[in-house]
Amino acid sequence: MSGSGDGAPSGALLVVGDVVTDVVARHRGPLAGGTDTAAAIRTLPGGAGANVACWAAHWGCPDVRLLGRVGSDAAVWHERALTAAGVRARLVVDPQAPTGTVICLVDTGAAAERTFLTDSGASLRLAPGDWSDALLDGVAWLHLSGYLLFSGTGRALVPVALASAHARGVPVSLDPASAGFLVELGVDRFLAAVDGVRVLLPSRDEACLLTGLPDAADAAAKLSRHVPLVVAKQGADGALVARSGTVRARVPAVPATPRDTTGAGDAFTGAFLAALLAGAEPEAAAVEGCAAGARAVEQVGGRPPAARGGKPPAAPASGGGRAAID
After folding, report:
1. Alpha-carbon distances of 315 from 19, 105, 299, rounded to whole Å
2. Dist. CA 23–CA 250, nearest whole Å
3. pLDDT, tens digit, 9 for 90 and up, residues 54-100
4. Region Disordered: what ranges (predicted)?
């Protein structure tokens, strides 16, 4: 692993995970039941896996690839957005399910906290048949979105990808993705599924849920007895780096004025992996992750800002056509 004395690996980062359309509604104060609540609404490309890939590219990783699954309704739009972000995407177009959609309700108060309404659509239909060992050609690191574990086909894909990566000596990281879905999956099933993962990147809530411990540091330490390196993201409290049952570093957050916390954890993960692949130690990579997370919360949506002053692609029209990209 880069950052552990072996030197920086030369090769690409491959992310396997979800690609979805985010509908971000920013409102102030509580929602008014039974009537209107004023909001600023934008349609943006998103998905935890895709966001991580885009932030890794934005943070300087020169070769970032993504495997995801979308519907024909928005495939072209998503492929263009990923390309513009510097990501080489292999998007499988699902013949039956539409592209996943997430409605992000963001309270524009001081914390800019968000609530997700999720229709996973095609994103959780990634399956072993979508995998090819050739996807690892030239790859130095594989990152899996935890959302893969929340569907039967995704759970079947994870061990296939892990086995392929292990056969080639490619280290694997995973972000648990959702405390809510983890409750449904169950802790034991999750821990069994991540056996062989080198780096785990949970949020504070996910780490506590996975261990049953109320303190994030204790939780990160305990998880690092199952996974060699645990980097627990704590939002405004920074991050914890744990190995071999011990918290080795507490990384402070970078001050920020939040507008929308959507994708902040994805930004952390993308920048962390970019730094790790560039040869940084995990503690230094976590510093980069905190910097990216701070930048992410100061803008709307889960992706990094468009490069060179550009704008993201316009939202797809209904019936947006099928992409020949699978």
Report:
1. 14, 18, 18
2. 34
3. 999 999 999 999 999 999 999 999 999 999 999 999 999 999 999 99
4. 297-326
3-state helix, strand, coil in the chain (%, to 5): 35, 25, 40
Query: Distance between the two ends of the chain, CA-based, in angstroms?
Result: 31
Contact of 183 with 154, CB cutoff 8 Å: no
Strands (DSSP E) found in the chain: 12-16, 20-27, 39-46, 64-71, 87-94, 100-107, 114-119, 139-145, 172-175, 199-200, 229-233, 239-243, 246-251
Task: Name the CA dihedral angle for 258, 260, 265, 269, rounded to a multiple of 10 degrees.
Answer: -90
- Strands in 199-200's sheet, in edge-to-edge order, are 87-94, 64-71, 12-16, 139-145, 172-175, 199-200, 229-233, 239-243, 246-251
Give the integer Cα–Cα distance in Å for 107 and 121: 25
Tell which residue, 81, 98, 120, has the closest CA to residue 311.
81
Tell me the C-alpha distance between 201 and 55, whole Å. 15
pLDDT on residue 308? 38
- Domains (ranges, CATH) in the chain? 12-31+39-303 (3.40.1190.20)
Q: What is the pLDDT of residues 34-46, one digit of tens each?
A: 999 899 999 999 9
d(CA 21, CA 316): 10
Q: In sequence order, what are the residues at sequence separation of 6 or more whose Cβ sits closer than 8 angstroms to the Cβ of residue 55? A: 266, 267, 269, 270, 271, 274, 292, 296, 303, 304
Tell me, what's the pLDDT at 315? 57
Tell me the C-alpha to C-alpha distance, in Å, between residue 147 and each of 44, 68, 156, 259: 19, 11, 12, 25
Is the pLDDT score of 8 beyond 70?
no
